[in-house]
Amino acid sequence: MENISRLIPDISFDDKYDCGDDTVMYISHNSSEDEFELCRRRLESAGFVPVGSSCIDSNVSADYRRDFLIHIYFTPVDKTLRAVEDHFSGEYFTEIKKSGKFQSSLWQFEIDHSLIDCGMCYIMRCDDGSFFVIDSAHWYSVNDDIRIIEFLRKISGEQKPRVSGWFFSHAHEDHIGKFNDILAYHYDEIEIEAVYYNFPPAHPQGCSWEMNVQSGMREFNDLLGRHPQIRRVKLHTGMRFAVGNILFTVLCTHEDVYPAPFEDFNNTSCVIKAECEGTVILFPGDASFYSDKVMISRYPGALRCDVIQVSHHGHSGTSPEFYRRAGAKCALFPVTQIKYDEEFPRQESNRLAVEIADEYHIASNGTVEVPLPYKPGETKLYPDETFENFEGIFNLWTYEYTPERMEQLRAEYIKRSNNNC
Q1: CA distance 283 to 81
Q2: Is residue 419 part of a domain?
Q3: Are 113 and 314 a contacting pair, CB within 8 Å?
Q4: What is the pTM of this model?
Q5: 103-129 per-position pLDDT tens digit
Q6: Is residue 60 part of a domain?
Q7: Is 191 helix (H, G, I), strand (E, B) or coil?
Q8: Torsions phi, psi of 164, nearest 5?
Q9: Are residues 119 and 246 in the same domain?
Q10: H or E stretch including 83?
Q11: N or C: which end of the chain has fewer CB within 10 A?
Q12: How many helices (H) and strands (E) does the chain have?
């Protein structure tokens, strides 16, 4: 790698972090926006071409490309300047392109919760008819690689749907599992143009992640390596990128959490905000304590949105203040009704998100379509397709449901299904 200090000799970088994927971040503490501007001038004089910039609640960033990408950003709350040397990322675009051929929509896809209560998959349709997909489903959602493709066929009318972008919040198996299966077994049935993510290095210092995390990331990278035609973009905080008529902003990655510990892998979540047809949608993935701490300190206004994916499936994720600042009128819970009911009394964040919202939807109750621009009352609920197999979940995860509680849950499931038919 080319050392940042050779390109920007005026700045004293006192720390560095291996970000994974042939990418290194250099950190200067007690810095200033003047030094950020100095970095920009030095990079331009070295032949780097500006490809994007942003100012988000006084946090400034800029991207430059020559034979590789350099991303710089300054966060005034901690007076920290970061310079990311990225030899991994392919081309990305910053200007939205509108075609007007189709209405844009967001779907909270009902993944198969027969054997697992977690996992999430969101689908956005660009107005050119292509799709932007967010995460996939758990390895235990056994048929969801097929169900996701069939759903894309249904809503596109195309035998081979086109995914212009696929984003992954983090590398837990309930977020990348079925994408791995799609690449392994169904790649010829779908067109994937680009993937967007920022996974940490596989073996960061001081962390002992479970084997399933290690193997899932390794499989993800191996499978993508077999398809070099898919562009890969490693996202950094402050980056803005466009896919069709949707503009995305990156609000947090594991690069911001460093040097806090990553033992809770959810703190490696990449948080993005989507803007489409005047609607703002916030996707925090499984962002947890340290990610939340970063965002609350930096963003007094940038978390504001119309629609929010509730973090970490409504388990212990982001704080009540996160949802207060978001102020979303539509809250989407990527979880089962069972776990939602169990978590609601003990999670203040869930209660506040529901209190603020005009409507909320739970993934296990059926796929939900949110037409864009979002207007309360226009959300469409699809029929409930999968049954929550309580004995199966119990056998795998030892959740303690009494026979009476199981019968109650079955009755509620049947009632919901009948109402949605």
Answers
A1: 25
A2: no
A3: no
A4: 0.92
A5: 999 999 999 988 788 899 999 999 999
A6: yes
A7: strand
A8: -80, -15
A9: yes
A10: strand 80-86
A11: C
A12: 12, 22
